[in-house]
Each structure stands twice: as structure tokens, then as C-alpha cells.
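Per reviewer request, we include the raw input and output of the structure prediction for the construct analysed in the revised manuscript.
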Amino acid sequence: MFGFKELIIPTYTNIFVTQRPTINRYIQTLGWVDEANHLTVGAAATEARWTQYYKGLAQFKDLERLYDELIDVEKEEKLVLYLTAKILFYDQTQQMVDLFGPIPWSTAGTLNANPGNFKASYAKYDTAEEIYETMLDDLKSISEQLQTLTTPASISTVFATQDLVHNGDLSLWRKYANGLRLRMLTRVSESSKFATRASAELATIINDRTAYPLPLVNAENAQIDIFDSGSKITSDGIRDAFEAGGTWYANLSSKRMIDPMVQNADPRLPFIFEPGVEAKGKFIGLDQSIGSTPQSDLARSGTIAIYNRSTFSRSKFFPGILMTSSEVNFLLAEYYNKNGKAAEAKAAFENGIKESVHLYEDIRSRSDDDVTAAAPKPTSEQIDTYISNLKWDAATNKIELIAYQKWTHFNLVQAVEAWSEVRRLDYPKFTVTTQNSDLNKTIPVRFTLPSSESTHNKEHYAAVHEQNNQNNKIFWDVN
């Protein structure tokens, strides 16, 4: 968990270096001033993400190696540690595959097992499909093991202390594992290799909640909470990521996100955003279709809304979100809608919205900063009005409604999931401008591999270099 914390807890590197110039622009969860080659995946962004993931992978592979060396009685005693670590590892791996496609995986992180032999430690690339298949197989097995597994008394205190996500609660880990399967099976459900499997396994999970419980309320979310801003588990560093001075404009809202929130009276609006200082209380987003000069003028004007500083950048207690009940409810809404279960789809859709509203209210309540006054707690009537304004019953394209809610809910908090779902569903739609000199004129559909791979892992990189193009879709992206 500590090895992966940089990708879970909001941090400067992940938000500013990786996501700001890439994902958050591609799907307009941020507003930005157009610049040359703004649709070309940057080397610094990909290298930073790659490095952080493989730090965590190396930690997991060491844990796995040490576990394998235990005698059987010790393996049985520490099985819960291994299985729960693996769930988190698979969550982070799924995100990497969705970003890059093939990655070094099954033979990666073996340097400590091959002391001094660097050549033997260079890792081959596994295909995205191979990695997904391995993880889906294993997560199914883990979920079934967790049905009957209990934590031995001899390690219960250690587990509860070291488990930063669920504090030793195996019932919540079981729900996290099932939620991760639900996410991954849905993502691959239209691909030729996984369609049949996904259809069968999704039906099993969704129709048997006793055997496969899911996180359906915020109390069951998988997240790392911050309790001590002076510890090594802290989100203190995100202020600079959002509020970098000069012309970085790292916390501007986009018109594409703000306008529907305003028009439909979204109760999350004052928790996620705050009006620009010169906007006279109005929420105005930056329009990405008007070109760099008017964008720059607007960005400097102080009229564009920004991400709420007391909720996000100045809170020392912003949690690291892994999986929320809203995500699960929206996945259920999509499944029910596709399978002709109208009442169930509507209920799951509305539950996802309600839990999302309450989540952002809760995140704001954790903050120790009041530079932006806390908005009043949304009433049930306000939430119901918002849901009514979305006009679910009249909508001819309910998948578009679900996709918009996922995108709004994820925003900057779960940026990789937001981009993955936009690519899979092709909603919401976005308009961007380009210059004649731009190397790329369409929104990327994957990250390119970092240059360090072609330098340091040359032999194995050669096997995948032809796929290394930001316009090549990941296998599940069939729309």
C-alpha cells in the first residue's frame, strides 16, 4: 500500500506532472489554454506514472516472493495479507493496462530474486488481454476464498494496523474484490475475447449478492483516509499541483462540466467548484472550442470557476479514493439498462447520484481549511430535484446519462477511471481546437511507453514498439 500511495493519495507528481497535461485535458475535467501539440502525450507525464507504478510492483513482488518462501502453516496464517495486497495490486495494474496496453508484468520486479543479475531481470511484455485474463481468474478465486476466510488471532492486530484501506475488515475487502471484477468485466464486455465470459460472470455477480456482495454505500468505499497531516500518508502536497502560479492554470473548470451542473442544479457544484473571484457568484467554465487567445483572456480575467480550494487543494485530509459505491451503482445501472431491467436501472442510477453527492459533502467536511466557506448540506429535496432535472424516464440514450454521471463523479479524483470510461462508452463528447502545426489533431486513446523502456529494456521493447502509438486503441475500446 505504501509503495502505491503516490497513485492513490492525491500527490503533486500524479496530479500536476501526469494528469494535468494529459487525461484531465483529453476529457475536459480541467479547463486549459490551448497550446501547441496539446494533444500529444508528453514524455514527463508517462515516465512519472510508469516509475510510480513499478515502485509499487517491486514491493508487491517482494511480498509475494517472501510469502512463497514460508512454510505451509505460516502461509495459512498470513494468507489474508497476501490476498488483500493482491487485490490492491490488481486495481493498480488494471489502471496501468488501461493507460498503456501491454506492459512488463509477469516477470517484472524480479531484481531482488536475481541478485546482481540485471540481464536476467529485464522483463518481457505481457499483452493487455493476458493480464486482464490472469487478474479476472485470480480475483474470482480470491472472492471465493474470502467467503470463508477469517483473520487468525495471531495477526489480527498487525493486519488491522497495516491495512490502510479497510482496517482489517475482510467483508469490505470481499466487496472491493467483487467491485473490481464488476468494473473489469464491464470494461471488457464488448471485446471479442471476453464478451461471452463477461456476460456470464456479470450475471452471476449481480444476481447473487449473497455470494458476491458489492460496495453499495459510501461506508463501504475502498479508500485511504488521512488522519495525521504530519505523517508520510498525507495529501499536503497537492496545493502546488492545483494552484501553481503563472500561466499553468491547473485548477480551472471546463465549460463542458460546469454548464450541465449549473443548468440541472447539481448539489455537488459548490463542493467541487467555487466561482471565480470576478464572476459575481456565477459558475463559469472555460470553453475549449474558442481558441487560445480568448481562452487566455478568460483565464486571466478571474471569472472562470476553479476547483474548490477548501475541498481539494488546501485540504490536508483529502482521501485516496480506490473504489466508491457510486461507481458500482453506475455500473449496475448500465448492466440493468442493457438487460431490459428498467426499474432496477433507474434505482441504481439514482443511488449512484445520491452517494456521489454525500461523498463530496463528506470530503469537504474533512477539510481543515475554510478559504472557501462550506456550502450548506444538500437537502433531500435538492437531490431529488437534480435527479428529476436529468429526465431519466424521457431519455432515449440512458447510457449517455450514466456516462455523464460517471465522468462528473470521477472528475480529477479518479482520473484514469474517468478517461477509461469515456473511451469505452464514447460519452461525453468533447470539442477541442488544434493548430496546423500540431503533430496530433485527435484526442489520444492511450499513453505511449516511456523512452526509458526503449533504452533500458530494448530487447523486450522491440516486441511491442509497433503498438506504441497514442492513436492505437486498447483492446476493450471497440466503439
